[in-house]
Amino acid sequence: MNKLKSTALLAVLVFSIIISGCGGKTTQQKTENKNQSNDIPAVDTNGAATGDWLIIREMSDPEKLNPIVSNDASASEIDSYIYESLLTQDKVTYELIPLLSSMPEVSPDNLTYTFTLNKDAKFSDGKPVTAADVIFSLKFIKVPLVDDAALRNYFDMVDKVEMVDNDQYKVKFTLSQPNWRGLYTLAAFQVLPKHILDPGNVTDKFSWEEFKDIKTAQKNADMQKFADFVNSQEVSREAKYLIGSGPYIFEKWDTGAGVTLTRNNNYWGKSLAANYPQKIIFKTIQDNSAALVSAKNKEVDAMYVIKPSDFYKDLENPDQFNLAKARPFEPAYTYLAWNQLNPLFQDKKVRMALAYLVDRKSIIDKVMFGDGVPIQSHIFYQNKKLLNSDLAEIQYDPEKAKKLLEEAGWKDTDGDGVLDKVVDGKKKDFKFTFLSNTNPVRKQILLVIVDALKKVGIQAEVQELEWSVYLDKTKKHEFEATYSSWTSPTTPPDPYQIWHSSQSEGEGSNYISFKNKTSDSLIVAYRNEMDESKRIALIKQWQQLIYDEQPYTFLWSPRARYIYDKRFKNARWYNIQPSPSYNEWWVPAGSQKYTQNKNN
């Protein structure tokens, strides 16, 4: 899928949405849905062999492959095999566990976190991972001229990071104030090699104070030069810059064809993470039908199946192609996004009316083959602890929608079938366009919504753009409405990145420009509240506000659909996003297709 990432431990924004198909479920499909559970398969590594290639279908090329400046979830998935963070998350328990460092020492006042790095950790070029790399990576993130607004906001709490006692394997982070998300934030950022990206040590001259004000930063010519360098396509595409400490090494990126990773035979952390396939290839195939044919013809080994009809009908008997199906639960939610800069969507009565014009249950049943649960909130619907369960489900109700629209001043005054209103002294028709990347799945669901809007006098169209153009338009707020999805993080959620007013500036993740002072104050209070019971009350209060304001029309939490070649063993499907960890998959030596077993 084409998708953008949120950087709260790789929560992800999915723009290429996972609904399509037509018709209801057959009896066999209903049984299949019922029988497939969320259970994660048992580990199957007895006799595991290295070698073979694993070819994965991607809908488009990634945007960039430097993990700090990338805002593309496809890139995030690829980067996860190249780069590593101080800690990682257990994919079953969701607990934080050591990776590049041991668990930190935390001061009693929760203001300092001291990490001791693993002395065995090395980048793929053989250089050790040291405190200098950690400090450099944080400075990289903090530079306000770098294109990483979505990531940088999480580190506002970090005043500085420094080496401890001249020990190159010990670093201390100092926060400006206690923050309950401190550990999750410091655990997650990927450590980049200073000797590759800053061989002249220019970032050593940057003070932590300079990062706090963009005007001050702009006066520093060296800082601007550094930002221009790391923001460049070259740094995010060329192998000499894409060096990490992970189990795979970036080999090449063929534009329009895909990205190839090669096994890091000298990977330092083999006891922590497997790397069985000799190559992992993310192959770009834009057309969904062509991708499905490629899977049947053994040209693709694994893929996310966008269209439910393909999954349940075309692949009703996957065994005939030696394929297997998986339906992991990847926490996420979908929504309609209304650009608040557009006068059409600035009245919350209008936004609520639009919510009443989406027949969620019908779409889930007839279009998604039942693979979705209606939702009312940003908080994942199974997070019973934080979810505000008092939010009433918004049912499909055109009459309520008409009443709200009329209350907001929208009437068909000239009898042309389109609602209109005087705005800023001029008559304005209720017409707008849903912007979409070229994707028949996404287009189909939008056309269903367009038809419902038409029945009450709202005229909407769908405009399709190539992915990179679409991405640029949405990041720059140059759209009226779109259809999107965020993943729900498996760490405690933080709405700041998506919802705080400050994140509507530049290319922040609040791309709908929602600005609400009460929302901002609740988000900040939630961020800073160390008492869990008070924090829960704040996040529930915030959910009620968002529900009342309806800046998004929340739709449903979908379920994932994958197919994969049955020659692979240990294909475990975790309840995270993305679900598969392809480095763990392996093929018996006698069944390997592309290479013979290499026991490195």
Summarize the structure.
With 600 residues, the chain is of the alpha+beta class.
Show the helix and strand layout.
Layout lengths: L2 E3 L6 E3 L12 H9 L17 E6 L14 H7 L7 E3 L6 E3 L6 E2 L5 E5 L14 H12 L6 H4 L5 E7 L2 E9 L6 H7 L5 H4 L16 H5 L2 H11 L16 E7 L3 E6 L15 E6 L3 H9 L5 E3 L3 H7 L8 E4 L5 E7 L9 H8 L4 H7 L5 E3 L23 H10 L12 E4 L2 E4 L1 E7 L2 H15 L4 E7 L1 H9 L5 E7 L8 H4 L17 H12 L3 H18 L2 E3 L1 E3 L3 E4 L35
Parallel strand pairs: 3-12, 19-20
Antiparallel strand pairs: 1-2, 2-21, 4-5, 6-7, 7-9, 8-9, 10-11, 11-12, 13-24, 14-24, 15-21, 15-22, 16-23, 17-18
The SS-based structural class is alpha+beta
Number of domains: 3
Poorly predicted parts = 1-37
The CATH class assignment of the largest domain is Alpha Beta
The outline comes out as globular
CATH architecture of the largest domain: Roll
Overall mean pLDDT: 90
And the CATH topology of the largest domain? Dipeptide-binding Protein, domain 3
Largest sheet: 5 strands, antiparallel
CATH superfamily of the largest domain: Dipeptide-binding Protein, Domain 3
Q: Level of helix content? A: 25-40%
- Strand arrangement within the widest β-sheet reads 1-2-21-15-22
Evaluate the radius of gyration.
24 Å
Q: What is the CA–CA distance across the termini? A: 33 Å
- Which percent band covers the strand fraction? 15-25%
Counting H and I runs of at least 4 residues, what is the number of helices?
A: 18
The count of DSSP E runs of length 2 or more, i.e. the number of strands, is 24
